[in-house]
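BUG-341 | component: ligand-complex export | severity: low

The export step for nicotinamide-adenine-dinucleotide jobs runs without errors, but we want the raw record kept on the ticket for reference. Input record follows.
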Amino acid sequence: MVKVAIFGAAGGIGQSLSLLVKLDQNVDELALYDVVNAPGVGQDLSHINTKAKLSSYLPENDGLAKSLENTDIVVIPAGVPRKPGMTRDDLFKINASIIRDLAEGIATYGKKDVFILVISNPVNSTVPMVAEVLKKFKVYNPKRLVGVTTLDLVRSNEFLKQMLPEDKIDSSNLFVPVIGGHSGDTIVPLFSIGCPEYYKKLSTEQRESLIHRVQYGGDEVVKAKKGMGSATLSMAYAGYRLTSSFIKTFKNEVSKEVAFIELNDQLKGAKEAKKIISEKYGGSHIDYFALPLILGKDGIEEVDYKILEQADEKEQEMIEIAVKQLEKNIVKGKNFISGIE
Ligand code: NAD
Ligand code: LMR
């Protein structure tokens, strides 16, 4: 039995993601939670003739607690999206308390071994926040909490394909690891590792433009939507890709993904990653980072730290820049929970 809960299920990402999870034949139960319209979305989805049983909840009548009953995987796209001119960090003011409260709910009512996937921005801060809440409640397991950065990989694959139309690349088969964090300069795509054969073909200007497009791809959508939000459909696709890898762990399948995680000593390879980030990239306080990882039935089984040394010279410079910004974002998230401003 696999039960998935989606918090923020009536939103732009939440509705599409709920649809994709409802279509997954490995899911037995899907619980929707939102402060508005969850029952409406749930009723609609419940007419689809796939296996997953639907339930939906609002905050009243212990809705949050009920959505978490026997839930194995919680995915969180709850909170506000950006409008033109805003950074992801500008969302912190509103989203921080939403995420803190939801994390407290998970810590109180969730199963001890629940997997938690955080989509809400700013991911660089919301993930450390959730970890701090779970630590406070003494229910934290670093193998089971990730920030969702999959959209950065999806974009890297697709934007590379678009840059090289004559190569007729199947972007769904590429795997460009994107490490660091999820905002602007903290997004570090490693094309030299993911697809060296195509990357070699690009001029310096093309490489710069490709990297910039990946780092600021979110802005393209925010601008095009003209105040009506940010990426929802591509995000639902990316979020489902990661969620389905977690779903597959219940069938003892192992997957390779990239996600923003705590570099906790309990994770194989995390100590080594922290050491390299500190000694090579000057990030002595960095304890969260997006890296390739192996997902298995206990969650994160291994972190690929070697990639931090395999990056080419330009990518290494980008990691150094990412580290500086990321340190501030991580501390901001942690301080919100510990009450330090
Ligand atoms: P949206 O406004 O369309 O939907 C958000 C939903 O969250 C709404 O239905 C709202 O009612 C709900 N919500 C608000 N407070 C809640 C609470 N306390 N409990 C439960 N639900 C609550 O926004 P969206 O476009 O779906 O984006 C959601 C978040 O995802 C934003 O923060 C956005 O920046 C982020 N995002 C992240 C990525 C990523 O790559 N990680 C990509 C796109 C968007
Ligand atoms: C994205 O990368 O599209 C999301 O983080 C949403 C945003 O604010 O850009």
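Assignee comment: Attached the raw record above. DSSP finds 14 helices and eleven strands in the chain.
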